[in-house]
């Protein structure tokens, strides 16, 4: 009975701790806890969407395809119910609740590999980790996106084990939720495809589920595609904002061509007379980026390979998104904390690769992480974009620690058994 009660109250206590820490920041700073950048851009976009029925971002009266509509739609829905003034407070609380739900899902996911009790350590670390507290108090996509991706991974494992339509619906719902907030998840089906093959997913069921997934894709993404076609007279499957990060990425690493980002951005902009035509400007920046990449490859292919395959992945992973400190915890401490989790987490997942029971799940996670690193290294390597991976580093860290503790206990028990045997002789 005590164990059963602990299994109920311990997760509840962890989630309560997480909620109190996040609510404390809201009480302390209120609506002043903002970045005054993307977060307020989403608020303005949501307000205009609610008033004018038009998704905009850079300019009040100009439609955009620069971002996925998830966050503006979420905020607009909240504002429609509570008004803007009260809605801003409600939106903060909802993001906090989503952050707490993310911790719950992380514990459920971690329990698959480390067991229920060790999963509580994952929850405790996530509850007190300052960057998570920060994001859960901001109007950003990172929180909902991380929640959706953890649900997606959890559902993928359940789908492989149960092979039912119910878990396929769960996977699809999680995937589309993540996709409507950020495009980074778009290539996740590659990881899922490989994982299901390794798990020997029945081909007959796979074919049926594949057809169901394609139909769901058309239904869920169709409105976004139709909207973009009507507004921009072009097929835009996700967003049209990749030109800027692609150009920025050509100024990272070593040995890249001379010049500055502002210089080449101005060159591209000069070819577009209308400053409100962001799609055209992004296209021109993409052209300039590809010219620089071609020049880089021609002049110094070795430095380009080193930059894209080594230096930019390091830039992407080396730090953590913590622009707005909480509880006066300095960034220097948080970065050290993160790097410990990163190192131990990677080591933990590599250890899992040698555990036959979990090898397929390691492959799923490894491909998912590799896709994220590859995409962000090809474009603009930015530590903020690694935020959704941090929970995986925490799970990997706890897996490693649990393995070490279990081996030490096993060794101590073997030693005690030997001592008892020889003493009896």
UniProtKB/TrEMBL annotation:
Domain of life: Bacteria
Gene Ontology cellular-component terms listed: plasma membrane
Entry-linked InterPro entries: LipidA_mod_glycosyltrf_83, RgtA/B/C-like
Transmembrane segments: 7-27, 73-91, 96-114, 120-139, 144-161, 167-198, 210-226, 336-355, 362-381, 387-405
Keyword Cell membrane: yes
PANTHER family linked: MANNOSYLTRANSFERASE YKCB-RELATED, MEMBRANE PROTEIN
Protein name: Glycosyltransferase RgtA/B/C/D-like domain-containing protein
């Amino acid at each position: 009975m005590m164990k059963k009660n602990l299994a109920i109250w311990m997760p509840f206590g962890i989630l309560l701790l997480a909620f109190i820490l996040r609510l404390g920041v809201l009480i302390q700073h209120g609506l002043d806890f903002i970045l005054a950048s993307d977060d307020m851009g989403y608020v303005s976009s949501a307000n205009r969407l609610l008033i004018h029925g038009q998704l905009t971002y850079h300019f009040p009266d100009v439609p955009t395809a620069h971002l996925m509509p998830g966050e503006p739609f979420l905020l607009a829905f909240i504002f429609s119910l509570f008004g803007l003034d009260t809605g801003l407070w409600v939106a903060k609380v909802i993001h906090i609740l989503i952050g707490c739900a993310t911790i719950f899902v992380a514990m459920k996911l971690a329990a698959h590999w480390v067991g229920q009790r060790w999963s509580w350590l994952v929850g405790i670390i996530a509850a007190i980790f300052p960057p998570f507290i920060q994001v859960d108090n901001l109007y950003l996509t990172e929180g909902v996106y991380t929640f959706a991706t953890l649900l997606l991974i959890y559902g993928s494992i359940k789908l492989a084990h149960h092979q039912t339509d119910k878990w396929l619906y769960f996977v699809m719902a999680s995937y589309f939720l993540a996709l409507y907030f950020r495009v980074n998840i778009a290539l996740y089906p590659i990881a899922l495809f490989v994982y299901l093959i390794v798990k020997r997913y029945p081909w007959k069921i796979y074919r049926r589920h594949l057809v169901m997934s394609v139909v769901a894709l058309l239904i869920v993404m169709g409105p976004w595609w139709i909207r973009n076609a009507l507004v921009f007279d072009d097929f835009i499957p996700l967003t049209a904002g990749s030109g800027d990060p692609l150009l920025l990425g050509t100024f990272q690493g070593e040995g890249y061509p001379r010049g500055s980002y502002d210089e080449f951005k101005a060159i591209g902009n000069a070819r577009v007379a209308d400053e409100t035509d962001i799609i055209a400007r992004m296209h021109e920046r993409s052209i300039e980026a590809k010219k620089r990449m071609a020049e880089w490859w021609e002049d110094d292919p070795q430095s380009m390979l080193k930059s894209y395959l080594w230096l930019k992945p390091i830039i992407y992973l080396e730090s953590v998104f913590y622009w707005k400190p909480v509880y006066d915890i300095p960034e220097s401490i948080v970065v050290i904390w993160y790097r410990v989790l990163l190192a131990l987490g990677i080591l933990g997942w590599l250890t899992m690769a040698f555990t036959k029971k979990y090898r397929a799940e390691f492959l799923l996670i490894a491909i998912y992480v590799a896709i994220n690193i590859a995409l962000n290294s090809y474009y603009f390597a930015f530590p903020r974009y690694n935020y959704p991976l941090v929970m995986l580093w925490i799970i990997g860290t706890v897996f490693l620690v649990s393995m070490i503790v279990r081996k030490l206990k096993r060794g101590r028990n073997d030693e005690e058994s030997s001592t008892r045997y020889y003493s009896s002789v």
